[in-house]
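tl;dr need the bound structure. longer version: we got a ligand (zinc ion) that a collaborator sent over and nobodys looked at where it sits. i said id run it. heres the input, straight from their email, havent touched it
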Amino acid sequence: MLKEPVSLSMLMDALSYRMPMRVTAVRYFCRMKYPSAFPVCPRCKTSMEREYQAYCDRCGQALEWKGFQKAVVIMCL
Ligand SMILES: [Zn+2]
């Protein structure tokens, strides 16, 4: 039973988190003590600590890692 009316856009938004989005960018941090690259969440754009995780730990977006080897590297300034 639905407690509250849900708009279609809210429903679509909730469903879209479960649809895996491709990770297409990697952010390279060169100013760290040990420079390293982190994958970027396609939804919330935060860098993630680990590669090949099923979901973004920030926004919960399901992630797709197919083609990750071709991801664009965002170099630090
Ligand atoms: Zn995210």
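gonna send this back to them w/ a short note. The pocket of zinc ion is lined by residues 41, 43-44, 46, 56, 58-59, 61 (CB under 6 Å).
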